[in-house]
Amino acid sequence: MRGRANATDASIEATARLLWEACRPDPDPDSVQSALAGGADVTLAVRAAEDHRISPLLWRALDAADALGALGTDRAALKGTADAFAMEALLLIPRAMELAVSPLTAASLEPVVFKGPAAAARYPRPGLRPMEDIDLLLPRADHARALSALGAAGWTIVRAAEGEQYDTVLTHAEVPSLFLELHFGLETASQRVTALDPVSLWAHRQPAVLAGTPAFVLPQDEELVVLAAHAGKPHHGFVRLVWIADIAMIVSAAASDGNPVDWQRVRAVAGSTHCVTVVGAALAMARRAGVEAPTGLFPLPTRGWRGAAMRQLLSETWPLTHLELPGYQLNYALTDDRVQRFKILVVLRSSGYGIGGRVRRIAALPRRALSGPHSSG
After folding, report:
1. What are the counts of helices (DSSP H) followed by strands (DSSP E) for the chain?
2. Residue 162 and residue 146: Cα distance in Å, rounded?
3. Residue 55 has pLDDT above 70, yes or no
4. For 142-151, how does the pLDDT look when each residue is reduced to its tens digit (9 = 90+)?
5. Residues 117-146: what's their mean pLDDT?
6. Residue 217 CA: distances (Å) to CA of 6, 155, 208, 209, 296
């Protein structure tokens, strides 16, 4: 994490507490002040918030605690970022959603909007959830027809769905800062660690209006499982707090709307898709952001390699120390399916690395070992 080199352990812990507090649907001013009084490094927090895509949330938390003065020379930059995302949410996102979804519905297609735009609708106000792309899901059989409709509406392909790619990435001249990712899948075959089926997910779609545009979304239970799996997938590894904030905001909004999360149903979806561990990990992290979910439904590994990785993942300082846990170890820990875990070990052995502590050079593997390019979501 940038800027962490000179921070003390106490400062790192206090800074991490400040970041977690920012992710709450309703941050507690006293907790924010306590983190600052405990030695939180505000400059480090601002840099980390940028990396974790929670800059607007950090500004909101400090503002709620009447603590913006603690920002010092970082105040202008953080305010500028927060203001930019607020303006984007009011002007750019609605237009981008219309440009992305309306050509498809006009062609009698029913795209599911998931991740960023769908989650952002549950945040307390526009602009708190930064977005870099719009994610849509349609069956593979509709992919070519969807691309034709989007092309006629001015979208240009910047990366086609070739080889193992499960989506096509497009851009539009009217909204050049936002990409459109048209999905027919969620994981590459070589990195598939869940049994999430995009066709089944799409089949459960529900109508909704997002940023003023009629579209479709996932049911709440499936959405939480998909978000957790997305956050913990091999080349993501829970490295962004915004994914945890998404879960916290969705759970809070559901309770406020009188439609609280059915955790038994979430557990059933997670179990049927080999996502119990990754959902349990996401919910354990989300507890630091105020989520109350039953721990017994989502048991986590406690022993051996998997247990050690879980303890690091669930530590309070994770937002500032996640680079210290090798990606392959976290992948192994989060994967439910034993066959898939065995494949991870086979890849390690075929690469010349031992298992466990027997070969010390394993610790030198990069954080994104066995992973592909990073996407924001």
Report:
1. 17, 7
2. 16
3. yes
4. 999 999 999 9
5. 96
6. 44, 22, 6, 9, 28
